[in-house]
Amino acid sequence: MGNDRLYFYLSASQGELSPALELYLWNSRLASSYWGLIESFEILLRRRISGSLFNDGVITQVSLNEITTGSYVLDKPMQPYSKMTFGFWTYLLSAQNANKVWNPTLHKAFRNGSSRKALHLCTSEIQKLRNRIGHHEAIWHLNHEDLNRKIFEVLEAISDEAVAWVESTTNLQTVLAERPAWLPKNASGQRETQSRGRDSSDANDSGSRPTAAQAVKP
């Protein structure tokens, strides 16, 4: 592994190789934990949106142009919703589609009172995180408390079952607790990461882990 790859980590460790490698490995575990969380996030989000806008699960350019501003061009004339990119779902929540998508239809797919602007902001931030992880960039210095809040703000707008399912399957808090002891808490200018003040039993009255089917139900 070259110094160019470790530069950011060496900067944090003041040039010491051993702690830089420790930070690099923790960053890798952090990315892996987020990846599973983002996978659930994306699947739950796209299932909720597609169920509201594309009942047959198939998206065509014609149908898309009818309900949006028409600025999104599909790679193929017809695609199943599961093949659409993360950016596509973010696009449907954007301000340019507020009058054609959110106001008449899409707002009904989320919890009453949900803010399109807030959902779009949160989803955009998680998309950026997803792309950073996909390009193997450093993420250890990000504000994980804020990212965690944004993830669950969207999940809470989807359903209690979605929240409970993700909380019962993620190990993010465990990995965050493995933060190298030598790394200052203010190294990234972020607040100290805390667990969410809600556990899975709050999101699921039965106290049992929800099934995947319950999490993605319309």
In words, what does this structure look like?
The chain is mainly alpha-helical and 218 residues long. The protein has one domain (3-216). Helix content is 57%, strand content 3%. It contains 11 helices and 2 strands. It has helices spanning 3-12, 17-53, 61-67, 86-92, 98-102, 116-134, 144-158, 160-169, 172-176, 200-203, 212-216; strands spanning 58-60, 78-80. The protein has a two-stranded antiparallel ribbon. Helix 4 (86-92) runs antiparallel to helix 6 (116-134). The radius of gyration is 19 Å and the shape is elongated.
Give structural attributes.
single chain, 218 residues, mainly alpha, two-stranded antiparallel ribbon, 11 helices, 2 strands, 3% strand
Q: Which word captures the global form?
A: elongated
List segments where confidence is low: pLDDT < 50 over at least 5 consecutive residues.
189-207
The number of helical runs is 11
Q: What percent strand?
A: under 5%
Ends apart, CA distance between termini: 47 Å
Spatial arrangement of strands, main beta sheet:
1-2
- Give the number of domains: 1
| Secondary-structure element series | HHEHEHHHHHHHH
Q: How would you state the average pLDDT, rounded?
A: 87
Which structural class fits the helix and strand makeup?
mainly alpha
Integer-rounded radius of gyration: 19 Å
What is the helical fraction, as a range of percent? 55-70%
The major sheet is characterized as: 2 strands, antiparallel
Number of strands: 2
